[in-house]
Design brief:
By secondary structure, the protein is α/β, with parallel strands linked by helices. It folds into 4 domains: about 40 residues, no CATH class; about 160 residues, Rossmann fold (3-Layer(aba) Sandwich), CATH 3.40.50.10380; about 170 residues, Rossmann fold; about 80 residues, Malic enzyme, N-terminal domain (Rossmann fold). The protein is built from 23 helices and 14 strands. Strands 8-7-6-9-10-11-14 form a 7-stranded mixed β-sheet, sandwiched between helices. Helix 4 packs across helix 7. The chain is globular and about 80 Å long.
Amino acid sequence: MRDFIGQQLLNDRALTKSTAFSKEERRKLRLRGLLPYNVVDMDTQLIRVLENMRRKEFDIERYIFLSSLQERNQTLFYRTLIDNIEEIMPLIYTPTVGQACREFAHIFRKPQGFYITPEDKGDVAEILDNWPEKDIRIIVVTDGERILGLGDLGANGMGIPIGKLALYVACAGIQPHQCLPVMLDVGTNNRELREDPLYLGYPFARVQGEAYDELVEEFVSAVQVKFPKALIQFEDFLTPNAYRLLHTYRDRVLCFNDDIQGTAAVALAGIYASTRISKKAFTDLKIMFLGAGSAATGIADLICEAFKRQGLSEEAARKKLWFVDVNGLVIKGRDDLMSHNLPYAHDHAPADFVSAIDAIKPDILIGATGAPGTFTREVVERMAALNDRPVIFALSNPTSRAECTAEQAYEWSGGRVIFASGSPFEPVSYAGAVHRPAQGNNAYVFPGIGLGAVIADASLICDEMFLAAADALAGEVTEDDLAHGAVYPRLSVIRDVSAQIALKVAQTAHAQGLAKNLDADGYVEAIKNYMYDPTYDGV
C-alpha cells in the first residue's frame, strides 16, 4: 500500500477495502472510529452491491450506480464485474453505454479520463504530465464523432473509452492503473448538444482538416514520449478519419482501430465457427455486407487475408465479398464510392438489397449499418430460401440499432438461422428448441490483443495478429455452444478466451519480429502472472 492512512486511505479507490479492513488494520492505519464495527469480507460486500444494483428500476440507473462504485472502490467493482460478467457487461457497455453517452453531461458525477481540446495545441505533452499514473500501457481514444450507431456525441463520447478500458481490465486482466481513457474534444456538429446548457465539451463546431490532423499528431507524438509502451486504440472515429489515421500510424506506433480491425477479427471468428454448423468449406463461402463503412470493409479486408492464407488469389478472394450500401449494390462505375470501397466494386448490374441477395446468393449476410430493421422479413426469408442454415450477423450497436432482433431472425428463418449480434439478446425458444444467440462483441478480441501486446512488449500491431486472434477465438467455441446455435463462447469464460488470444498474439508478434520481449517460451507464465485479479491486499 501507499503511505496513506485514515480517511485518505478510505477515499483512495485503488487501495480502499471499506468495511473489509480487519481490526488489526484499523488500529495500524488509523481507521478506528471511521468504519462501522463489523468486519465483512469481499463476498459479503458483493452481496450488498448486487442487491443494491438489482433494486434499481432502469439500466441507466444501474450504470450510474456501477460507475460510482468504480470511483469509490475499484477492487470491489472489478470483482463484481468479473464474477457477474454476463449480467453486468451490458450495463457498463453496450447497450446501456449508448444511453449513458447520450446523457453523459446530465449524469456526470466525477471526472474520469483525459480531455484534449484545440486550446491545448502546443501543450499536449505538458498537460499529459497532469495524469497521475506514469506506466500507461493501454490508451483508448475517441473524438466522439461516430459513437456506436448514434452519431456525433462530442465530448459525451468519453463513455466509450471509459467502458472499453473497464473491459480491458475485467476481460483480460490489464492492470487498472495502466489504463488511460482519452477524449480528443475537437467540438461537435450536433447543434442540440452545443445548445445544451449542461453540455461539458468544447462548444463549437468540429475542428477539421489540417488543424484536426495536427492535434492528433501532437497527441500521438506526446504519447510516444510520455508513455512509450502504450498501445493506442482508436475508437468510434468517422469512417474517413478512421481509415486515414490507421494508415498514418499503424506502421509508426503501437496502435489499432477497434472498429475496423477488432470487429473484423470477431466477425471472422464467428464465420469460422459457423462452418462447423453449416458444414460448408470456408473458401466456398460468399459473403454479403449491408453497410460499407469502416466496420464492414474492415471485416472484408481481414476475411480477404484469411482466404489468401488458404490458397485463394487476392482477386478470387475479393470476388467472394460483396457490399450493398444506401445506394444499392457496390459495383464498378459508381462515382460515389470511397477509396476503401473500390477493391470490392465488382462488375455487375445495379441492384437493390433484396435483388442483390437473389443475384449473388450469399451464404452469409453481415449487417454493419447502424440502421435498425434493415434485415426485414423478406431479407431473412430470402436468405433462408437460399441456404439450409443461413448465417446472419446483425452487428450494429446498441441493441436498438440492430438490423434485426434474434427473435425475428429465428422466426423468419423457421429456426434455421445461425445468428449473431453486436449487442446481447436473450435466448429464443422456437419450435421446441432453445437457441442462444451469440454476441459478436469486440470485447471477445480487443482485450486479448492488448494483453498480448503488453506481454510481448510489441512495437506494432500487424494483420497477422488479428488473424491469430480470430483463430484463437473460434477455437474456444465448444460443441455445446454450437448445439445451441452460438458461434461464440459464453461471456463467463472470457478471461480464459482473452488469455488464449493474448498468447497467440504475443507469439505472432515474436514470429513477425515485433516483440521486444524475446522470451516466447515464457509467455504463458507471463500472462498468468500479469493478469489483474481484484482481491484485497493485506497491510
